[in-house]
Structure formats: structure tokens, C-alpha cells
Amino acid sequence: MREHKYRVWDAETETMFYEDDVCSHFDIWNLGTNKKDFPNNKLMEYTGKEDRRKEKLWEGDRTRWLVNNLSEGVVKHGDYTTMTGHRYYGWYVDCEEFVLSLIDSSDFECIGNIYETPA
After folding, report:
1. Quick check: is 118 in a domain?
2. How far apart are CA 103 and CA 111, in angstroms?
3. C-alpha span between 39 and 46 (Å, rounded)
4. Closest by alpha carbon to 77, among 47, 48, 56?
5. For the chain, what is the domain count?
6. Residue 1 above 90 pLDDT?
7. In this structure, are residues 61 and 115 in contact, taking their beta carbons and an 8 Å threshold?
8. Which pTM was predicted?
9. Is residue 77 one of the residues assigned to a domain?
10. Cα–Cα nearest to 69, from 119, 109, 97, 112
11. Judging by beta carbons within 10 Å of its beta carbon (0-12, 13-18, 19+), is residue 10 exposed, middle or buried?
12. Pseudo-torsion of CA 16, 21, 25, 26, nearest 10°?
């Protein structure tokens, strides 16, 4: 069973809060369920995976696929369809022209996130 950890981007202060700081700065239970009450905050979850450098991969992270150094994408969660047409639900990397499963996360390198280091 994977760890459930969260981080929050506070757009008002342009600050990323991680794990323990999330609980001390935000009402975590209402943050995820009542988004209208927290319009400047973006809740993101830890994937339970690490990249090739053993850095935690989070929802919203920008990654580079090491099999093809030119492919970059964003870590997301939900329904996705692979290049072979198979449908899945879970963590994946959206590379715009295709999606990649995050099953083997050692094929990826985190290069930032969509808030602090946008493309």
C-alpha cells in the first residue's frame, strides 16, 4: 500500500507547501472537497513513485522520459489510453502527443512542476 502524501500550491503567495506543512497551513479535508472555498490553492497527491534519482514524483510534476530525451510531460491521475489503444486508470505522464504509464518510474526524471517551473 502506498503512502498518502499531499502538497499544495498557494497561487496567492506563490508558495508550494509539502506534507507536514500542508496540514499546519490548510484544512486538508476541506481543501480537496470544497475547492470553491480555496480558489487559489491546488491540491496535489504523491504518486507513491520515485524517478531515477529517487526523487518523489507528484501530481503536476514535469518529467522527461529518459528513453526518448526529447519527450517531456506532466504527471496526472485518471483514465488514459496508451499508444496501443489499451485503456487504464491510474498515474500517467501526459506528453501531449501520447501518454505513458508511470508503472516504471525509473524511466523518468523530474524537471520541475507546472507551478514553480512552467514550460
Report:
1. no
2. 18
3. 21
4. 47
5. 1
6. no
7. no
8. 0.84
9. yes
10. 109
11. middle
12. 80
Query: What is the per-residue pLDDT for 18?
Result: 87
pLDDT for the residue 20: 74
Please return the burial class of 62, using the count of CB atoms within 10 Å of its CB with bins 0-12, 13-18 and 19+.
Answer: buried
How many other CB atoms are there within 10 angstroms of residue 1's CB atom?
Answer: 4
Q: Helices in 17-71 by DSSP H: which ranges? A: 19-25, 28-33
Look at the block and give the residue holding cell 517551473: 117
Burial call 16-28: b when 16+ CB within 10 Å, e when fewer:
bbeeeebeeebee
Q: Which domain holds residue 70?
A: 6-113
The answer to whether residue 109 is domain-embedded is yes
Cell numbers representing residue 41 in the block: 490553492
Q: Is the pLDDT of residue 33 over 80?
A: no
Q: What is the pLDDT of residue 49?
A: 94
Is residue 53 a part of any domain in this protein?
yes
- DSSP H helices in the chain: 19-25, 28-33
Q: Report the distance separating Cα 118 and Cα 103, nearest Å.
A: 24
